[in-house]
Design brief:
By secondary structure, this protein is an alpha/beta fold. The protein is 29% helix and 29% strand. α6 crosses α7. Pfam families: CbiA, GATase_3.
Amino acid sequence: MTTSVVHCPALFLTAPASNQGKTTITAALARYFTNQGKVVRVFKTGPDYLDPQILAQASKQPVEQLDIWMAGEEYCQDMLYQAAQVADLILVEGAMGMFDGEPSSADLAARFGIPMAIVMDVKGMAQTAAAVATGLANFRDDVQVAGLIANRCGSERHAELIRDALPASLPLLATLKRDEEITLPERHLGLVQADEVKDELEVRFEAAVEWLKETQDTGLLALPNAVPFYAAKQVDDNQIIEQSLLGKTIAVARDAAFSFIYDANLIALKSLGAKVVFFSPLHDQALPDADALWLPGGYPELHTKALSENLPMRQAIKAFFHSGKGILAECGGMLYSLDDLTDLDNQCYPMLGILAGQGAMRGKRGCQGMQTAVIPQGEIRGHAHHRSRSANTPEPVGYGRRQRHPAPGEAIYQQKGLTASYLHLFFPSNLDVTAKIFLAGQQG
């Protein structure tokens, strides 16, 4: 089997910590080069639903997640290779700090040879910013650092102090002034969903383009060096994915309350032969004809009254559940499946009642982390990220297995054809288990 290679300019945006401005700058760069007629493909490191929505609007291209643990090296390699065939530029936005997590952003960049640009909020420091950036750049020999992006830089004198303190091997790529007009809107689980503020985002993207143009250092405004991307060896000419969902229709909840949907998961369902249709638990009165349902995560806690008052939909899903057909309910979808949900205003509303228990929102602290779902159908990888709790639920059939911590992860429930958990599953990590979850009650 011959190995193919495609070269494409690429840059990995990283930072010493969260909240340094990575997403804002990645979106600004994507829109800057898109406005020049370039095809920009953006990837987001790790499990994230909200940033990719923002970045997809900024780049006008689909945005996929890259995570070596959740998806596997060959999957990530294949995604980058496919993007390189059509893109003029590949941007990857990291997660958390540069070396945080196992694997980290640095691990991903090193594995695929993508140079990293360090985004740092330099408010309140000058030469120290150069020291921190130099330390990050020299921490590992296998990571290539293209330079520093000084965000929230107060003045040209501020920039000069940082620039002069950097070694010649670590250029200052851009000095970006403080500008609240380009800051992206946020809420309790992260950024606001793009569809809710689409027009506002357009204004901010174009303002961010002008913001980039004002930098005294222009290294960021030129295309980075090309990187070789190689075809993955995971699929050869004789390997064909078994279409175990061929002829099946899967109805996916998708609206303002349920939107945490990986494009990769939809592609996986279609690769298994399924037809995917969408419905809105908020607005529709009936379910589409389907063999299985997927109730993904989202923000049901912001729409408890509307979800509760849509009695025809609640009755339709309950009847579907009692038919024994497969239902996957993830995080917000699981909260919707419970008897009732107490929202952020401490108001309690009846929900579907297909899984015993009560859900309630809690304060700022939440649960998050990568886990492997261990269920009778097998093992499949995913992650948890929530700021709610559930109580009085049935005995679980399994738990998530954390990456390193020995304590049990999220509980996983199965009743009739329902599989419910706080875990968000990544379907490509195990297509066979994915198919079995949706085929519940239809096998044998």
